[in-house]
Design brief:
Number of helices: 6
Strand order of the largest sheet: 3-2-1-4-5-8
Distance between the termini: 52 Å
Number of domains: 2
Structural class: alpha/beta
CATH class of the largest domain: Alpha Beta
Radius of gyration: 19 Å
Length: 277
């Protein structure tokens, strides 16, 4: 009984931490980059680049202004947002330095969250390309140079064989498994290691895992109460992701063309697609 009570309290703390960020003022325009299946309740605009559920637990949510975009080449004006959130994104990207520069460019402050080094060593993921930690308010990123099929994959598979045990550990104290980094004006970081390994093509879908029922209920309630209600005109925020030039929109927001480099952007699955191939 005591164990269940502690687990419940920690679930509430995790949910509250996502909701109540003292750095985000009521009037702030907020973006969640790499929003996935659980966008931050405070985010006014969201974007993601991954369509499949291979790197998240449930289906992508598009319940507010949304576009397809890569974090390394974001299609937003300089300082378009007061605050950016990148939660469990940096460890997935090939070029974390470029991703951090883009977050710094489009927003005045932000929050970055990743699994910490202990998490990555204990439960390695085949689609996590780096290990992250924060020391003295500096984000330290270590690129993984290889994925060990004989060792790493075994531990990765064990996670799914022992799914209940993993969630019990995670929900007892999720904060102990995370790197949480807050920044303002400038992201202070170091990146170690050379080129990251290529993600395996046969990724195990994260949708095979399920969140515990209580956690799912908490998430649904949070979304119901705190879903953003601002009216956002995305056209005023967008630029070309490649050259950052102005866009011309056709048929409302059905199509966008760059005035500078002539790149053309179209809708994909109902949303403008700014991913660069």
């Amino acid at each position: 009984m005591f164990y269940k009570f502690v687990k419940f309290i920690n679930k509430l703390k995790t949910a509250y931490r996502r909701i109540k960020n003292p750095a985000i003022r009521k009037n702030y325009l907020v973006i969640d980059v790499g929003s996935g299946d659980m966008p931050n309740p405070r985010a006014d605009v969201i974007c993601d680049s991954i369509e499949e559920n291979t790197e998240r637990i449930t289906a992508l949510k598009t319940d507010r202004p949304f576009i397809w975009a890569d974090i390394e080449n974001l299609p937003f004006r300089d300082k378009a947002f007061d605050y950016s959130i990148a939660s469990h994104v940096i460890e997935h990207v090939d070029n974390p330095e470029c991703a951090l520069r883009e977050l710094e460019r489009i927003s005045r402050a932000g929050y970055i969250e990743t699994p910490n080094a202990f998490y990555e060593f204990a439960i390695p993921h085949m689609y996590h390309l780096s290990r992250c930690t924060a020391i003295n308010n500096k984000l330290i990123i270590f690129k993984k140079e290889r994925w060990d099929e004989t060792v790493d994959k075994k531990y990765f598979d064990i996670r799914y064989d022992m799914n209940k045990c993993w969630w019990n550990l995670h929900n007892l104290d999720a904060q102990a498994l995370l790197t949480a980094y807050h920044w303002k004006n400038k992201i202070d970081y170091e990146i170690h290691g050379g080129k990251s390994f290529k993600k395996p093509k046969d990724l195990i879908s994260e949708s095979n895992a399920e969140r515990p029922p209580l956690q799912s209920l908490i998430i649904k309630l949070v979304y119901w109460f705190l879903k953003p209600r601002k009216k956002i005109d995305l056209k005023t925020l967008l630029v070309c992701p490649k050259c950052k030039g102005d866009l011309i929109f056709e048929d409302g927001t059905e199509r966008a063309n760059c005035q500078n480099c002539n790149l053309k952007f179209r809708k994909h699955k109902g949303f403008l697609d700014f991913r660069l191939l």
